[in-house]
User: What shape does this take?
Amino acid sequence: MIRTEVITCDCCGAERRSGNGWYILMPMSVGDAVGWLAAPLTEPLTKVPGLKHCCGQTCLHKELLAGLKGGTEGDESGAD
Assistant: This one.
């Protein structure tokens, strides 16, 4: 029996079935600068620890915005 890992969107919870509209988002830092690397999802990247999986551009943008705000999307506790 072949066991396949189910990948879900870290923003909306959608399961990846097939298709190529998925992205990964990885936090990166160099010195004092902190940023994000966004790239199309490829099979070798599915198991890298610390990645966020996004099912499309809408979820990718939501996760980027949440990362820039320093919290999670929908978190109303912080001031803009």
